[in-house]
Amino acid sequence: AAVTAIQAKNSAGRSLTSSTRDDIKPGTLLYGNYITLQDVSLTFTSVSLSNGYAVAKETNIPLMKFQIVGGSAGAVKITGIQFSDGGSDTTTGSTHLTNFSLYDATGTEILLQSGVSASAADGDYTVSFSALDGGKGLTIPASGTKTLLVKTDFSAAVTTQIAQVQLADANAITAEKVSDGTTVASANISGLGSVLSGRTVTGTASGLLTVSLNTQLTTATTTQILAGTTGVAMMNLKFNADYENVSLKYLKLDLVTNDTK
Hints:
Blueprint: H1 18-21, E1 42-47, E2 52-55, E3 61-70, E4 76-85, E5 97-104, E6 110-116, E7 126-129, E8 138-140, E9 145-154, E10 162-163, E11 165-167, E12 173-177, E13 189-190, E14 196-197, E15 201-204, E16 208-213, E17 237-242
Parallel strand pairs: 1-13, 2-15
Antiparallel strand pairs: 1-3, 3-9, 4-7, 4-8, 4-11, 4-12, 5-6, 5-9, 10-15, 11-14, 16-17
C-alpha cells in the first residue's frame, strides 16, 4: 500500500511552514516500546536414571532420559537426534543392541520413532533418529519443556556386556525454527558443552535364582516334637530372583537320614 504524507495545518486550514511547524513540540519526550531482539534457543539437561541389569532378549530397556527446554523467542522443531555409544559401553553395537526407540515421556509415553539400528557392529556406533513422529518432527514450544526417553532391546547374544548411549555435542541435534523453517545454529543449543550420558545397563545371559535357608523361621535341628503334633515347620526356604522374574515350576526335597519312619 502507498504511504501518504500527512500535512500539518492550523485551525484556519492553512498549511504550516517550517518556521511554524518546528515550534510544535511535546511537553515531554515520547518513547516507543523497547524491543529485545533474540534468536530461538534450546537447552538440554539430563534426567537421572539408576544403573541396572537386563537379560538377553529383554525388550524396552530404558537407556537415557533427558529434557529439552525451549527459549522464549519462539518454538523450535527438532527433526533429528543422533546418539553415540557411551564411554562405559562394551557392546558391539548392532550385535547386542536392537530396535532403538525414542519416546516423548513428558507425560504418558508417546512413541516418536522405533526400529532404529546401531550403525555398526564393531563397538563404535551411532544411533540416528531422523523420522520423529512420522517425519513431522518434535516441536518444543517457546519456554516449553519436553522429556525424551531412549530405549533398546537386548539380542540373544548378550552375556556380560554393558550398554550406554550419550549425546556428544550440539552437532548431534538437527532443528529448525517453526516461524520460517530456517536451521537452528548449533551455537543456539546449550547444555551439550559436555557429554550427556545415559545410565549403564549390565547384561546377563539369563536371570539368577538363589535359594537359601531362612534360619530365623526354620525350626532348630535339636527341637523335640511330641507325638501327634501336626503342622510342624521342618524348613523355611528363601528364594531370591535377580535380573528378571523367575517362575519356579518344580521343587524336590530329600530326607537327610534313612532311619526316619
